[in-house]
Amino acid sequence: MSAPDPNTTTASAPSTDVAPETAEADVTTGLNALLANATVFYQKVRHYHWNVTGPHFFTLHEEFEALYTFWNDAIDEIAEQVRSRGDRPVHTLADVLDLASLEEDPSTPAAEEMVEVVIADLAALDEQVQQLAERAEEADDADGAATVLEDLSEQIEEDRWMLRAWLNDL
Ligand SMILES: [Fe+2]
């Protein structure tokens, strides 16, 4: 007859349950990362609007204004998507820079180079928006983030196309 093992424990196995809200939280985190990139982009385009020079001044000064005006509204919509999920939109510039993958431009490039930078940033934003739209569709997208993101992607693609046409890069 063996003595009972004093080391026997009833420790439970680690839970493998995935919280149902995980996918939704993932979308919220992604929306804040997008908000950070959109904020960096917005400020960069304002900088280009203010500081562009040369024979394309009138065209680009106006085009950059149209672009940052669009992103001003887009930023607001993205932030409201974060709020509607019960989270806080990233709002301090320090946190924005921490979270963003896009980089600020402390330099003042020549006009054509500004357009090249804007096109590259729009490509990065579009990829981020599309990946997030897919995740939103997979999650319980009760707040309609996927629709907001798909509309955003459509506008980004149109702007990319027009800027590439201006650069003669089609
Ligand atoms: Fe202005």
The fourth-level CATH homologous superfamily is Ferritin, core subunit, four-helix bundle
Structural class: mainly alpha
Order of helical and strand elements: HHHHH
Main sheet overview: none
Into how many domains do the coordinates divide? Answer: 1
In terms of DSSP E residues, the strand content is under 5%
Range of helix content: 55-70%
Keywords: Coiled coil, DNA-binding
Region (Disordered): 1-24
Coiled coil: 115-142
InterPro entries: DPS_DNA-bd, DPS_DNA-bd_CS, Ferritin-like, Ferritin-like_SF, Ferritin_DPS_dom
Would you mind describing this structure in some detail?
With 170 residues, the chain is mostly helical. The chain has a single domain, classed as Ferritin, core subunit, four-helix bundle (Ferritin), CATH 1.20.1260.10. Helices cover 68% and strands 0% of the residues. Helix 1 (22-51) packs across helix 3, helix 1 (22-51) packs antiparallel against helix 4 (111-138) and helix 4 packs antiparallel against helix 5 (145-167). The longest helix is centred in the N-terminal third of the chain and has 30 residues, at 22-51. The protein starts with 21 loop residues before the first helix and ends with a helix. The protein binds fe (ii) ion. The site of fe (ii) ion has 2 residues, from loops. Residues 49, 65 line the site of fe (ii) ion (FE2). Residues 115-142 form a coiled coil. Residues 1-24 are annotated as: Disordered. GO terms for molecular function: DNA binding; ferric iron binding; oxidoreductase activity, acting on metal ions. Belongs to the Dps family. Residues 30-170 form the Ferritin/DPS domain.
